[in-house]
Amino acid sequence: MNTPVKACIALGSNMGDRHRHIQTAFEQLGALVDTELLAHSNLLETSPVGPIKQEMFLNAAAIIQTALPAKDLLKALNAIEQEHGRQDQATRIKWGPRPLDLDIIFYGDLIINQPGLVIPHPLMHERLFVLKPLSEIAPDWIHPKLGRSVMQLLSHVKS
What we know:
159 residues; Alpha-Beta Plaits
């Protein structure tokens, strides 16, 4: 078994029962094999980002401790998304509406750049909808590439 690592997950939903999607996803994160949900943020309603007109999002963040390798964690997150009705990678519209979106923001202090898996999430430092919820539960988490805390990154993002 791998040594457990703490990871930060961003959650978002703007289709269907947004509250239920996020609350159920918190439970599902904690139910993953060799994984424990350590904390989660409050829900935050935000405007969508990108060129497609769509409904408002509910966003949140969670901290888990997991022994799953990052690639396996990503597969598990994709399976949870699909359980909630999200289209698979091949058919989904980039930046389109979705019942549930789960992204690995941090995986310990690792920097991973593989096809289909980039950690830390490459745009997280520009995204209020990621940083604001994350600041509630991991304000001092240091971005391993930028060397700044979540709170420092949040202070530079326009609301």
